[in-house]
Amino acid sequence: MKKVTSLLLGSVLLISAVGCSTARTSSSAPDSAANAEADLDQPTAETNQDDATSEVRRRQLNSDIRAAEQRNDITGGDAEKADGDLQSEVRSKLEANLPASELTVDAKDGAVTVAGTVVDQAQLDKIETLAREIKGVQSVTVNAALRSGAEPEPPPSDSNNITESHTGTP
To answer: For residue 90, with 0-12 CB atoms within 10 Å meaning exposed, 13-18 middle and 19 or more buried, which class applies?
Structure first.
């Protein structure tokens, strides 16, 4: 009983926190998905990448996704996901797999819109595929721009060692 109460209380707190903020992969990402791109430069992309690939942030991303999956399992797994849960899960997936990006995610009734900036064409091409991997996503609109001059150096090779299967990276 304590576990269920703790889970429900944690879910309410998480939903209230997520519901009051925009789902962004970095603090410098656009404020809404209506803004097509951010002013991404190489130092900012490198900062975003360092943050997204840090051990602490990877654990947070995996924890966020696990919590959303547990909430979905409690409701039987086939219930329609709340817009905030979709935003959070897609944001976590994108941040984990496109660490140098500045993306904002909006979701309404299963329709996800992703806006912002990425540093290479491969990242731009992955956005829709990654978003569609999240259960409950019905359609994806990508309004992201490419800033190839902002591409940072690759992250250290040990930065992926704690990434779980939730993030889609080895």
So the answer is: buried
Q: Could you tell me if 131 and 44 are in contact, meaning their C-beta atoms sit under 8 angstroms apart?
A: no
Whole-number pLDDT of residue 127: 95
Q: What is the pLDDT of residue 16?
A: 52
Between vectors from CA 42 to CA 40 and to CA 44, what angle results, nearest 5°? 60
Q: Which residues neighbour 127 within 8 Å (Cβ) at sequence distance 6 or greater?
A: 94, 98, 103, 114, 118, 140, 142, 144
Q: Which residues of the chain have pLDDT under 70?
A: 1-2, 4-46, 48-53, 77-79, 149-170
Structural Rg of the chain based on CA atoms:
16
Query: What is residue 141's predicted lDDT score, i.e. its pLDDT?
Result: 96
Inter-CA distances, 141 with 104, 112, 114, 115, 129, Å: 12, 6, 6, 8, 11
The distance between the two most distant Cα atoms of the chain, rounded to a whole number of Å, is: 54
DSSP single-letter state for residue 5: H
At residue 72, what is the residue type? Answer: N
> How far apart (Å, rounded) are the C-alpha atoms in residues 80 and 90?
15
Number of DSSP helices (H) and strands (E) in the chain, helices first: 5, 4
- The pLDDT value given to residue 142: 95
Rounded CA gap, 163 and 122, in Å? 20
